[in-house]
Amino acid sequence: MSVAQELNTNQDSQEDVIFPPGDLYSDEPPLETELHLRQIILLLKCLEWLWRDRQDFYTAANLSIYYSPTQRKSQDFRGPDFFVTLGTERKTRKSWVVWQEDGKYPNVIVEILSPKTADIDRGLKKQIYQDTFRTPDYFWFDPDTLEFAGFHLVDGEYQLLEPNNQGHLWSRQLDLYLGIHQGLLRFFTPTGQLVPTPEEVAERLAAKLRELNIDPDTI
Predict the structure, then answer these.
(1) Whole-number Å distance between alpha carbons of 132 and 146
(2) Is residue 136 within 8 Å of 107, Cβ to Cβ?
(3) Global pTM?
(4) What's the pLDDT tens digit per position in 34-63?
(5) Cα–Cα distance, 130 to 207 (Å, whole number)
(6) Angle, CA 17 vertex, CA 12 and CA 22 arms, to 5°
(7) Which has fewest Cβ within 10 Å: 144, 151, 179, 180?
């Protein structure tokens, strides 16, 4: 067999080769608007700050989840806007590859609605997250209209969550509420306290120091 023939044979056979572990990059398109980006970053920052001492979870945004039963990158993948997986190692990943993560799927998914994606998020994606991912908690939020809804998996089907008196929805998986604060989706503690960003924590500390006649800029 000539070198050219061998190369052609190798190229043909490579089409059926399963992608090796660790070689699956995320394949998600850019977020649609700056508001979507800010919303997702806000969720990431708040949860990572709240759980800064924990190493048993993974959270990401706009990252591909590969779940092909034949372990192929080219089929069966979705990219939730925001998701959290519990009981796993907290480390950087190129993507979430189910067959490399002990078969784990996200425990919580949040989709940020837009005119282009709303129907899919309410329909096809909801069905996939219910029937295939079996994700216990699913939420969606529209930063333009403030539409907000959440679901919890009960006996294999999503049941609509009822809001509390503050309009917040409870996530059993996170042990936190999700609710709208100043036009954006935020986390709240079980007692209803807003989960802050690191910047908000710093601002509160600086304000407290000023009350004590201490200039925070001199510390």
Answers:
(1) 28
(2) yes
(3) 0.81
(4) 889 999 999 999 999 999 999 999 999 999
(5) 45
(6) 135
(7) 144
